[in-house]
Structures are given as structure tokens and as C-alpha cells.
Amino acid sequence: MKQFHEALLDREAYPHRPASVRMVQTHISWVYITDTFVYKVKKPVDFGFLDFTTLAKRKYFCEQEVALNRRLSPHIYIEVVPVTERGGNYSFGADGTIVDYAVKMKYIPEETSLRLFLDQKGTVESIVDRVADTIARFHETAESSSAIDKFGAIETIRHNTDENFDQTRAYIGKSITADQWNIIKDYTDRYYAEKTEVFKKRVESKRIRDCHGDLHLDHVYVTEPITIVDCIEFNERFRYSDTAADVAFLAMDLDFNGYADLSGRLVEAYIDCSGDEDLRRLLNFYKVYRAYVRGKVISFRLDDPNISAEEKKQAAASAGSYFALARKYVDAEAC
Question: How far is it, in rounded angstroms, from Cα 189 to Cα 206?
Fold first, then answer.
């Protein structure tokens, strides 16, 4: 496998022969970045909520990724291409034995990501307003149905949060403290007991939609129009959700990166665009949830044999910061 992925760093593996190729990893993908296109190959991993362990599954979820992300970025997602081997050489889209599949995307200049844009430009309220409008319009047209409504039930949401706590138990003492784990879990359980009617009202108001599911700063680009990429394709349980959960994810990530003022503006601009005043009642709950999810996902890197000890150290610190933010939200609501 190491040789396979090293081979894809060779510019000869690409039909357009780019000037350079570099690869970055997430917990579920190898991403090959060239000057004009990006190719994403899914890792053969199984986290329970996600299973990419067979070639057929990876092909299917590549196809799902393209189809679902075209809802927000039809100009970015191009196609699914095979990764082939012939004579010991690996290529994207060439003749040969198919060994894997990749999502082919147009390259988006990294400096236009919302994270880097804000770092360079500082507080830019009008950009946040544009992002809020884009999300509100997306939610307005996103699919809803009685089947999707079921994902707004407390039982389903509790399944998601219980899974989070179960899967992070192994990281106590590594990226999350026992105190954080217990306090956040207790808050979550009490919230379900005390806010039953709030969740029911969200379902009745048709606020459960086929959402993005992974809406943080690295997935938003300041382009014309605003580009939003990389929605959840691998599990409907994470994508079918309250629209408030999408908004809370991006608001939380703005808080995390030191833009609390813009986080508040995003929420207010979204409410102005969508008319969803009731979102405020669940905002903190979903901020806790989303911060915890980020901490969990980054913690998975601690078990990845493909990354270095230094990268794992950085992952533990980053995950710890997200867990600390989730605890901070809990404490703020208790005040």
C-alpha cells in the first residue's frame, strides 16, 4: 500500500502531467493536489459509521460524493476516475487493472478557503453574510420527507451522541480528559430529558433536511459564487439532520479559530435569511455536539499507521482543543 500511494506522487500518473504533485491525508482519504485538479482516494478503513473496506464500496461512495457535492459546488466536482495499474505503473484514468477509484475535482486556490481568507484579511463581515445566505438557500431547497424527519427524533440524535462517547472512551487521557468526557456526556443526557418538545417542534417545522453534515472553515471557499465542498457522503445518519446542526458547526469553528464576533454574525445573518428564529434554542447544544465530533474525528488520527509520531502529537493537541471548547460551551450554558 505504501508503494501504491507513493507511486501516485509521480507526475506521470496524471493524464495532464502537472508541474508538481503533493499529497495530504485525512483520517479517511489520501488527497493528491496538482495545479489544476485534485484527486481524492478513500482509505480502506472501517469506523463503524463508515465502511470503505472494499473496492465496490469505495467506488459507490466516490459516486455519492460527486453527486451530493454538486448540490453546492457543481462547478468543482467533475467525475469519478479509476486508479489503474499496468506494468507496475499506477495512473489516474489510464488503461490497466483497476485497483481503486478517485473523486476528481477542480483545484481551488487554498488562499480562498474561509480559514485562510479570514487569517489574511481579518474580520470581513460581508463575506460571512454571503456564506450565511448560501447556506440558507441550500437548506431551503434541500430534500425533506417523512423518512428524513425520523433523523430529527431524539432517539436518532442520541444514537449519534452515544456513539461519539463510546468511540472517544479510548482517548481519555490522550486527547480528552475523564472530567471533560463525563461532564459533556451528562450535559447531553440532561438536555434530551429536558428539551423533548424543542426537538419535536423542529421536526414539525420541517427543519430536518438532507444537509451538508461537515460544515467547517476548511470546506468553505471565498469564490464567486461561494464554494462549499466535502459534505458527508458515507452515512445518511450524519447528513440528514436539523439545519441548526449545520449552522452550529460553522459557528463553532469560527469560535474555535478566534472569530467569536463573526460566529455571532453568521448566526444572525442565517436567521435573517431563513426566518428560523427557533434555531437559537438548539444552537449551544449543537455547538457542543459539533465541537465534540471534531475532537473525535481528529483523535482517530492517533490510530493511523500512515502518519508520523509528530503528526499524532499535533492531532492530540488539536483534538484536545476541540474537546475543551465543547466543555466551555457546557459551562457557558450552566451560568
Answer: 24
Looking at 61, 79, 107, the residue that finishes a domain is 107
CB 323 within 8 A of CB 295: yes
Short-list 11, 2, 53, CA closest to 35 = 11
Q: Check residue 98 and give its pLDDT.
A: 96
Q: Is 23 helix (H, G, I), strand (E, B) or coil?
A: strand
Q: Is the pLDDT of residue 335 over 80?
A: no
Residue 138, Cα to own-chain centre: how many angstroms? 16
Q: Sign of the CA dihedral 256, 261, 264, 266?
A: negative
Note whether 227 and 108 are within 8 A (CB).
Answer: yes
**Does residue 86 sit in helix, strand or coil?**
strand
Among 107, 126, 149, where does a domain finish?
A: 107
Structural domain span for residue 42: 2-107
According to DSSP, the residues that pair with 32 across neighbouring strands are: 23, 39
Grid cell in block for residue 294:
471534531
For residue 268, which of 100, 112, 129 has the smallest C-alpha distance? 129
- Calculate the CA dihedral of residues 102, 107, 111, 116 and round it to 10 degrees: -30
**Across the strands, what pairs with 91?**
84
Name the percent of the chain in helix, strand, coil, to the closest 5.
Answer: 55, 15, 25
The CATH number linked to 184 is: 3.90.1200.10
Cα–Cα distance for residue pair 76/53, rounded to 1 Å? 26
Burial 275-302 (b: 16+ CB within 10 A, else e): ebeebeebbbbbbbbbbbbbbbbbbbbb
The single-letter code of the amino acid at 244 is A
Per the prediction, the chain carries an average pLDDT of 95
In angstroms, rounded to a whole number, what is the distance separating the alpha carbons of residues 274 and 133?
Answer: 8
* Contact between 59 and 80 (Cβ < 8 Å): yes
Strands 97-106 and 89-92: unpaired
Q: For 221-232, what is each residue's pLDDT tens digit? A: 999 999 999 999
Q: Can you give the pTM of this predicted structure? A: 0.92
Provide the H-helix boundaries in 169-259: 178-194, 196-204, 236-239, 243-256
